[in-house]
């Protein structure tokens, strides 16, 4: 995906992160988050929310 976006920013990363969770791809979201060069408050909130909504409550608490 990011080979098409020369300079991904936080919005690009967060949109893709949210998409992973929306499709139930928790492992993909975890991988993306670990590789993200830019993490902002929205990134962390997306992780907590996405993990919670996908049943990974303990991990969501740990991220929080």
UniProtKB/TrEMBL annotation:
Q: Does the keyword Metal-binding apply?
A: no
Q: Which GO terms describe its molecular function?
A: RNA binding
What are the start and end residues of each PPR repeat?
Answer: 9-43
Does this UniProt record's set of keywords contain Nucleotide-binding?
no
Q: What is a biological process (GO) this protein takes part in?
A: RNA modification
Give UniProt keywords alphabetically.
Answer: Repeat, Transit peptide
Q: Specify the domain of life of the species encoding this protein.
A: Eukaryota
Q: What is this protein called?
A: Pentatricopeptide repeat-containing protein
**What organism is recorded for this protein?**
Panicum miliaceum
